[in-house]
Amino acid sequence: MPTPIEKNRKYTYGEIEKLSDTEIWELLDGVPYLQARPSMPHQMSLGELHFLFKTFLKGKPCQVILESAVWLDLKPNEKRKNSINYVVPDLLVVCDQDKIQDKGIYGVPDLIIEILSPSTAGVDIIQKYNKYLKAGVKEYWIVDPLNQVIRAFVLDNDKYLETVYDRESKIPVSIFNGELEINLNEVFPVTEEEDDE
To answer: What domains sit in the chain, N to C, each tagged with a CATH number?
Structure first.
């Protein structure tokens, strides 16, 4: 049986690691957040994004990684137990190979993509946005499969510049200087209403 979370209490990774074998928790400044189970549109968008990044990065030094543990506040080989900033993004890109360790990513990825679920959208839009900005994530995408838009945030000094892309758009990936453009009509599945037209 899962251990209940106490309100108004800060946790470390070592503590949340023991909470449950079936649930995925994240920590932002010691506050635990339970991840939602992904919907089918979520999974389909994630699969397409992973494929497009993986194809582009073949033979290049950067790696695209699905749903990996990320300790934002650690350097490679530091102990995870005391970390208070642990996330499991839907997709991430890391160009510094030293950050990629057996258990996950130690340090800040170059790009993070989160796909919204209704129960966790507030965490992605507010808490994670602020944490990723403070940590120095160069590029952060919030994918909204329901409305078929992506909000792309690109780090400029100490703030994010936002651009919103709809299904008919192409997103130039900033960390690759626009060499990769993601066509959003490949990312978002066709709806049943569109099939009937």
So the answer is: 37-189 (3.90.1570.10)
* Predicted structure pTM score: 0.91
Amino acid at 184: L
Q: Quote the longest CA-to-CA distance of the chain.
A: 55
Residue 105, token pair as written in the block: 């990513």
CA–CA distance, 35 with 81 (Å, rounded to integer): 20
Positions of E strands within 107-191? 111-115, 139-144, 149-156, 159-166, 170-172, 181-183
In sequence order, which residues have a C-beta less than 8 Å from that of residue 115 and are 6 or more positions away?
Answer: 38, 42, 45, 46, 90, 143, 145
Mean pLDDT estimate for the chain: 90
Q: Are strands 181-183 and 104-106 parallel, antiparallel or unpaired?
A: unpaired
